[in-house]
Design a protein that fits this description.
- By secondary structure, this protein is α+β, with helices and mostly antiparallel strands.
- It has 2 domains: 128 residues, Jelly Rolls; 87 residues, Arc Repressor Mutant, subunit A (Orthogonal Bundle), CATH 1.10.10.
- The chain contains 8 helices and 13 strands.
- Strands 2-7-5-6 form a 4-stranded antiparallel β-sheet. It has a 4-stranded antiparallel β-sheet with strand order 10-11-13-12, covered by helices on one side.
- This is Crp/Fnr family transcriptional regulator.
- Pfam families: cNMP_binding, HTH_Crp_2.
- GO terms for molecular function: DNA binding.
Length: 246
Amino acid sequence: MENPLLRKLERFTKLSADDREALDRLASQRIRRRRHREDMIHEGDKPDHVNPILEGWACRYKMLADGRRQILAFLVPGDLCDLHVYILREMDHSIGTITPVKHAEITLEDFDRAIDGRHRVMQALWWDTLVTAAVQREWTTDIGQRSAIERIAHLLLELFYRLESVGLTNGNACELPLTQAEIAEAMGMTPVHANRVLQELRGMGVIELSSKRLVIPDRAALGRIAHFNPNYLHLQRDGSHLDAND
């Protein structure tokens, strides 16, 4: 499959052939494969690489002293595990896999060398950083204001749109390898409560969920439940004025 990072960044602007080649080289220099439920980096570690996800799902999370976990974000193909995190002295959260994951491991020096002078790429990467922050704001709104059914409906739609943007949907269906416990850890509820909400959404006919596959028969209907506005994902080619000619 085409480099999912390229697919994602080209939702912002059309890159030149040279830009695309540079990003492809970056994503193929050092490939790492991680097992299911393996930490890619721990809280307290010194971050020293940029890690684009090429295949599989991961998450950002925080652990409390008593063992409770809060999932802060889901990472899907095309996502960068904290583009500028190497600026920090140490990680303030962990990143762990949800499925087996294939990712690139890019040194700061290689990354800076590859994007030096590439205006479109730099703008697209800033766009990606701003979208990541917008998603975090939306999750804060979920926890603070949306009801349980609105939260989960919103999460499912968000994930579908994000997967669609990198070519990982099939019509109105996509893979969804999350357990009910992982959905609960992200949405601030118990697994039992998350199960009840998913059953309610199934009963309403707005989702089908089985064998790690999600089907959304009517996005508009699910969106009305979630009070969903996809504007925070900024998928309307905001950088089209920067499009390359080749």
